[in-house]
Sequence to fold (369 residues):
Amino acid sequence: MSLKNFNWGLGGFIIGYQAILLVALPFYLYYTPPHYPVVLASIVLFVLTSFGVGVYHRHYSHLGYKLNRWIEPLFLFFGTAAFQGSVIMWAHDHRKHHRFIDTDEDPYTVSKGFWHAHMLWLLEKSRPRELERYVPDLLKRKLLVFQDKHYLALSIAINTLLCIAVGAIVNDYLGAFVLAWWGRIFVSHHVTWFINSLAHYWGERTYSKELSAVDNFILAFFTSGEGYHNYHHTFPADYRNGVRWYHFDPNKWLVWALSKLGLAKGLLRHTEYTIQQKLLLADQKLFLTTLATQPLTRKQELEARLHTLYVSLQEKMERMKTLRDERRAAFKARRKKLSYALREIKRTARKEWRQWHKLGRSILDAQEL
Ligand SMILES: [Zn+2]
Ligand SMILES: [Zn+2]
Fold:
């Protein structure tokens, strides 16, 4: 990056605050070691701001659910406190990231390297934003336009307020300033940036093997669930990122809890069958490309077996979707019948899944030999 390209405003702020913090922090920790209340308060604030960023992401950028208008300002308040820019700017860049993933049009493309995706993109002068094209819906919302217009003043005011509140509660204003404000911002910045860098590098490509995005539990732990990034890039509108019940995704749990309290509605989620169909497609692509590179004598036979199983499983998935919808609309007696049919088809599908995995494993293993 040349100096001509350097974004002196944003870049200067990012480098400046981190440099000051990294120099000052050891002195602070040495001369006035913080007591646990201020550490705890900083962690609580970190979690609240990460929920705010979650709302920036799943609610505003992807419209995965609708927040009640009375609770919306509260999340916007904590989102603003994260020093990650206004919703309109954030969503603009993020929608472009999804649409142009792994190309030069993606503002934080990982194809330009890990550090570019992590933070260097923020230090460069950005291309003029095309708000009317990417976020026309958000431009119609007065609250978001207000936040965008006054972002700098609002974020400083909110953080000052939070810092004073934490300082008063734990009786440690210096600790609140160093840890609950700047320390929290530092951690919050880097874990969010890791979603753009590390979550495009290190982990499993579960659903879309052609994308750089990966699922990574460790990142999910530090980002309130945002680390299941391969699933997210495959199904961006789903309000969940961690789709299994055991996936660590506090943002998903929060939205679900809000919906139960009547504070969120219209939660978008893909059915288990749609997800499995996508898994099947990703597997098939991998198995076929692996087969193509192998000098296997039984190649044609394996391809035929893959095809038969693939078609059969896809059909079963479609049938299960239809049965499930029919069951929902049916009366009691018929519902029982449909449940039985659904159970039967699930049982045979499970058997075919086992055959599918066995066949796939034998193809992949043959390549490794
Ligand atoms: Zn991504
Ligand atoms: Zn996204």
